[in-house]
Structure formats: C-alpha cells, structure tokens
Design brief:
It is a single chain. By secondary structure, the protein is an alpha/beta fold. It has 2 domains: 9-73 and 98-186, Rossmann fold (3-Layer(aba) Sandwich), CATH 3.40.50.620; 195-366, Argininosuccinate synthetase, chain A, domain 2 (Alpha-Beta Complex). It is 40% helix and 19% strand. It is built from 12 helices and 14 strands. Strands 3-2-1-4-5 form a 5-stranded parallel β-sheet, sandwiched between helices. It has a 5-stranded antiparallel β-sheet with strand order 10-9-8-13-14. β11 and β12 (279-285) form a beta hairpin. α1 crosses α6, α3 packs across α7 (249-262) and α9 (306-325) runs antiparallel to α10 (331-343). It is elongated.
Length: 413
C-alpha cells in the first residue's frame, strides 16, 4: 500500500481516534499505527449502538491499544443534543431527522476532552472525503480546540473503496462483521435516534431497498392490525413522561423506539444534498424521533402564539442546515437555540398519538396551564358574545385594499 509522506511526522506523539469498531475505523487504527508510529488512544461513544461498543473494546485490545475510552453518553446525547434539536422541530430537506448529524458534535466534544486528558496532540476520525461527517467532526474539533492537529485517513491513503478496505482487513487479520458473500456490507451508523444505511444497491436510486437490510423495524405491512395509543407529556418542549410514567431522556427515546419499531414507524428512503456538493442516497430508521416530532408539533399547536410558531417554521430550515453541515458549535446556532428555547417555556401539556402500520396519528392534545385554544371563541355554536363577527368586515376590507387598488389600476390601463 502506498504511504503518504508526512511533512513532520515526528511532531505527532499521540492520537485520539474516534473508534466505532466497524470496518473503516478498524482499518484506520492499524493504518495509523503503521503510518505515524505513535501511541493511539481509542474513544468509543456509547450513544445507543448496543453490542457494537464491547466489540470495539475487543478489537482495540487485539490491535495493541492500551488506553481505551468507552463511555456511556446516552443521557447526555438525548438531553443536550437530541432534545434541543427537536424543540426546533428540525428536519433537513423536508424529511431527514438528522440522526447521524446530531451525534457528531457530542463525539467531537468528548474526543477533544480526552485529547486534553491524555495529552494527545492529534485527533483522527473515520469519515470519508466524500461525506458530511468529515466537516462535522473537524468543525467541532477546531471550534473547541483551535490548535489541534486533525488526521483524516480517507483523504491521505489509497484505500479508495470498501473492497480495498476488506482486502486490507484480511491481510492484517482484522475481524469484520456483517460481511456478505456477494460484496461489502452496508455502510451503517447507529445511535439512540436512528440507524442509517448507505452503499450496495442503495447506490442505484431506482432500486427498492432489500427488506433484509432493515435491522430495527417491522415492515408496515407486517405491523400489528390493532392500533396502540400513547400519552406523551411535555414540559418546556421536552418529553418527560409516557403514559403517565416519568422517564429519563434516554429511556424516553428507548421506549418510543420500541413502540415505533413494533408498528413499522420511521423508515425513510432519501436522496439528499450533501454539504460537499453531491447527491447521496441513504435509508434511515428513526422510529422514536418520528413519534417525538409529530407529538411536539401537536403540543405547540395549542401553546405557541401564531407568529412565534410561524417564525420558528421559517427559521427551522436554516437551523437544520446548520446541524446537517456541522455548525452545532457555531455562534449562529447558539443564537437560534436561545430563541427557540424561549419559545418553549409554555410548551407544556400532553399529546395522545395513535400508532398504526407506519403512521403516527395525533388524536388529542391539551395543556391545563398554557393552552391558547379558547373553545368559547372557536366554537361553531353560540359564542355568548365573546367574538363579534361583524368586526371581520373591516378586517377583510383592509387586507384586500392593496389588491383592490392594483385591480383598479389594471382596469384603467
């Protein structure tokens, strides 16, 4: 394999690698050892990927790593990253719930903290030079520690395909899971919010995904024939209880994922516009997040002022693009977050949803303390004089004034 000559390789004494234990980062770990001839520290964030965490520890040990950091960040992930994003009703390009995007700033933050703790002078990640994650990781690194040295192997080596990665892994006795006889595995990323799939037949956007690809959810066709109701309680825009039971942020998402998976909720097949300029097809399962978004909009519908709600909707695509493109730590995202969080002070109450064969249907919502819905005004029955319908005459005429003037001018011409 061709080696890239480093300008000053001796300057790198220790590297902290964001290590998932999958194909890419397992190969990267060995490559860093061979290329930089320095100590490597691995960091694996447990943000809900399950058994993959311990397999990462085993692989790191097998490759001779002495400092291995594996940390349970599930509560921090949901409380400090997922919840703030959902307070904004964030979706990218009308569909994507940003499950991969929102995990990167947390990983970057903790990776920098570990670099400081272990006195490492460099950090490394496994994102490719074609994707968004390289930007997300590195913007986070530089925002949190401007002088850090960043190593991105995909932009340096000549292992330019998953086939070559598999060959390298075989040559160096690196175990690889989910290998298929007819090709490389899907490129996957999982956390408490979602699981994503790229590669293989998904690179042809005209082909339907294989049913065997989906790992979390039952297909909507095979979901239960009986609907299930869930009561979701909100406090200041965050879910605090399900069916009357108080739960931690992570356990709320775990529970909603289980319910969503059972009912075939949250599958998405998307061709998206990457920040680097290309279109890319990915498939996603975001069961709990899909339920959360629908319920959150429902509580806002009765607790947010009309203009506040509309302004949030106007700003949301910008906020979503900031997260998708890696600007979580930017001053503009923080500014928007402050405004969004103020809007949520009165987003308190409960929402009832019905889960049925891939659908999340809002069937009820109420707030005992902050509802702006007044049945005495909205009723189609006798309103007991609280609303004078005659007032609408002047309201309509004034709003039509500019159009009436324009129409008269056209007729004159």
């Amino acid at each position: 394999m061709r080696r890239i000559k480093k300008d000053n390789p001796s300057k790198i004494n220790k590297i902290v690698l964001a290590f998932s234990g999958g194909l890419d980062t397992s190969v990267i770990l060995k490559w860093l050892q061979d290329t930089y001839q320095c100590e490597i520290v691995t960091f694996t964030a447990d943000i809900g990927q399950g058994e993959e965490v311990e397999s990462a520890r085993a692989k790191a040990k097998q490759l001779g790593i002495k400092e291995i950091f594996i940390e349970d960040l599930r509560e921090e992930f949901v409380c400090d990253f997922v919840f703030p994003m959902f307070r904004a009703n964030t979706i990218y390009e009308g569909e994507y719930l940003l499950g991969t995007s929102i995990a990167r700033p947390l990983i970057a933050k903790r990776q920098i903290e570990i670099a400081r703790k272990t006195k490492a002078d460099a950090v490394a990640h496994g994102a490719t030079g074609k994707g968004n994650d390289q930007v997300r990781f590195e913007l986070g690194y530089y925002a949190l520690q401007p002088g850090i040295h960043v190593i991105a192997p995909w932009r340096e080596w000549n292992l330019t395909s998953r086939k070559k990665l598999l060959q390298y892994a075989k040559q160096n006795n690196i175990p690889v899971e989910m290998k298929k006889k007819n090709g490389s595995p899907y490129s996957m990323d999982a956390n408490l919010l979602h699981i994503s799939y790229e590669g293989r037949i998904l690179e042809n956007p005209s082909l339907e995904p294989e049913e065997c690809m989906w790992r979390w959810s039952v297909s909507p066709e095979k979901a239960p024939d009986k609907a299930e109701y869930v009561d979701i309680e909100f406090k200041q825009g965050n879910i605090i209880a399900l069916n009357g039971k108080k739960l931690s942020p992570a356990n709320i998402l775990i529970t909603l994922n289980r319910l969503g998976n059972k009912h075939g909720i949250g599958r998405l097949d998307l061709v998206e516009n990457r920040y680097v300029g290309m279109k890319s097809r990915g498939c996603y399962e975001t069961p709990g997040g899909t339920i959360m978004l629908r319920a959150h909009r429902a509580i806002e519908s009765i607790t947010l002022d009309r203009e506040v709600a509309h302004l949030k909707d106007e700003l949301m695509p910008r906020y979503a693009a900031l997260i998708y493109n890696g600007y979580w730590w930017s001053p503009e995202r923080k500014m928007l977050q402050t405004m969004i969080d103020v809007s949520q002070l009165n987003a308190n109450g409960w929402v009832r949803v019905k889960l049925y064969k891939g659908n999340v249907i809002v069937v009820g919502r109420d707030s005992k303390t902050d509802s702006l819905f007044d049945p005495n005004i909205a009723t189609f029955e006798e309103d007991k004089g609280v609303y004078n319908q005659a007032d609408a005459t002047g309201f309509v005429k004034l709003n039509a004034l500019r159009m009436r003037i324009a129409s008269k001018m056209r007729n004159i011409k």
